[in-house]
């Protein structure tokens, strides 16, 4: 047995069918989101963009190190593309703390309207845009400054740490409200990104720079003019792991995971194989949960049954063993976080049982990938398919000792 195997949990689960509901759809109304490099949701307009000509004198546009937008941040200009929903189908927007772009006259149910004025380069201004479903105004004002007016609709009635349901099939952007922290979305990991626009916006500037409810942003002082806009990039954390071996871990590990996080990992196990899942790190708060279940049927559509929670007081490393697909679900509460967990997994084959005393059993040495483990009768215990559960558990434990 490997020295890291402190002890083995055998997952043999028998009850409780997994509930499956209809996937969420995009909420009601026509609105616009910032476009990621992965593209727009199916059926949305993806032709809109803004080219923003910022201040040319000592230009200082900047951006976060991680930025997934379809666009470019240069020293004296910023170009970004957009995705616009072109129909009004859908349910109302769920409660939370976030914003989207809107058309000037568009009203979204349960969303609060607002706008931001961004004061751009005044000489030989090259601002341009093509936007089909939300509008910007580009106007000359006093002292020949140019401003760009962006319109928003914001949800302000909920807690951003309580995850909402939105489609998870492709990455997307929302805008944070109230703080730079992102609204949690079920089965998605959010990353806070930002762009600093070197404009004539600054704290205590005369005249209104914002109206109504707007996304969270930060203004520079008069010596360091500009406006920093924050963007929440979402990508799915509902993972399916198909490799023979690999690693999975909580979002942000070994740093803190977000409040209100919900993610899952399904390990696909080939027929006549087992999987070992070795947890090397587990540090969760009392109200956080890491649950697991095993697929009940060997059919591809078999359901997961009997959810079990991994105790938080277990000493690491420890190992779980299963002979079918395993699903792990991690959820954090809305109060505080810790460093999370990390786990390694790998497959191993199970030799077929001898069916009659006169037949000779030959184990296959084929593997599902170049890194797969193989087994022969001399290396592992032979486990008949008709073995009672108590004996099967004992046999699987013996097999785990020889992985």
TrEMBL record:
<keyword id="KW-0732">Signal</keyword>
<dbReference type="InterPro" id="IPR035914">
    <property type="entry name" value="Sperma_CUB_dom_sf"/>
</dbReference>
<feature type="compositionally biased region" description="Low complexity">
    <location>
        <begin position="353"/>
        <end position="382"/>
    </location>
</feature>
<protein>
    <submittedName>
        <fullName>Uncharacterized protein LOC116302255</fullName>
    </submittedName>
</protein>
<dbReference type="Pfam" id="PF00431">
    <property type="entry name" value="CUB"/>
</dbReference>
<feature type="domain" description="CUB">
    <location>
        <begin position="237"/>
        <end position="348"/>
    </location>
</feature>
<keyword id="KW-1015">Disulfide bond</keyword>
<feature type="signal peptide">
    <location>
        <begin position="1"/>
        <end position="21"/>
    </location>
</feature>
<dbReference type="InterPro" id="IPR000859">
    <property type="entry name" value="CUB_dom"/>
</dbReference>
<dbReference type="Pfam" id="PF16977">
    <property type="entry name" value="ApeC"/>
</dbReference>
<dbReference type="InterPro" id="IPR031569">
    <property type="entry name" value="ApeC"/>
</dbReference>
<feature type="region of interest" description="Disordered">
    <location>
        <begin position="339"/>
        <end position="390"/>
    </location>
</feature>
């Amino acid at each position: 047995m490997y020295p890291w195997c402190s002890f083995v949990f055998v997952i043999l689960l028998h009850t409780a069918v997994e509930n499956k509901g209809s996937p969420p759809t995009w909420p009601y109304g026509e609105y616009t989101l910032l476009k990621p490099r992965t593209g727009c949701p199916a059926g949305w307009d993806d032709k809109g963009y803004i080219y923003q000509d910022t201040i040319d004198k000592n230009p200082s546009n900047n951006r976060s190190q991680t930025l997934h937008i379809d666009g470019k941040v240069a020293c004296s200009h910023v170009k970004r593309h957009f995705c616009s929903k072109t129909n009004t189908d859908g349910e109302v927007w769920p409660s939370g703390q976030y914003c989207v772009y809107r058309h000037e006259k568009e009203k979204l149910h349960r969303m609060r309207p607002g706008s931001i004025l961004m004061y751009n380069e005044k000489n030989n201004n090259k601002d341009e845009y093509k936007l089909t479903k939300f509008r910007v105004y580009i106007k000359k004002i006093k002292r020949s400054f140019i401003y760009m007016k962006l319109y928003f609709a914001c949800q302000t009635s909920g807690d951003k740490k309580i995850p909402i349901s939105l489609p998870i099939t492709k990455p997307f952007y929302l805008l944070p409200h109230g703080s730079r922290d992102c609204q949690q979305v079920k089965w998605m990991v959010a990353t806070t990104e930002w762009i600093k626009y070197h404009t004539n916006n600054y704290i205590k500037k005369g005249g209104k720079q914002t109206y109504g409810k707007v996304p969270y942003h930060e203004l520079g002082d008069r010596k360091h003019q500009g406006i920093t806009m924050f963007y929440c990039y979402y990508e799915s954390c509902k993972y399916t792991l198909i490799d023979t071996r690999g690693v999975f871990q909580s979002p942000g590990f070994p740093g803190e995971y977000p409040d209100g996080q919900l993610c899952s990992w399904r390990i696909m196990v080939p027929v006549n194989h087992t999987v070992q899942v070795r947890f090397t790190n587990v540090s969760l708060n009392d109200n956080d949960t890491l649950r697991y279940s095993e697929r009940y049927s060997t059919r591809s559509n078999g359901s997961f049954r009997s959810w079990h929670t991994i105790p938080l007081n277990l000493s690491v490393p420890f190992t779980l063993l299963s002979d079918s697909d395993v699903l792990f679900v991690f959820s954090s509460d809305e109060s505080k976080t810790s460093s999370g967990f990390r786990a390694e997994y790998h497959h191993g084959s199970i030799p077929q049982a001898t069916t009659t005393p006169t037949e000779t059993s030959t184990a296959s040495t084929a593997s599902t990938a170049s890194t797969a483990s193989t087994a022969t009768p001399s290396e592992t215990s032979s486990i008949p398919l008709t073995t009672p559960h108590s004996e099967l558990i004992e046999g699987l434990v013996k097999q785990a000792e020889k992985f």
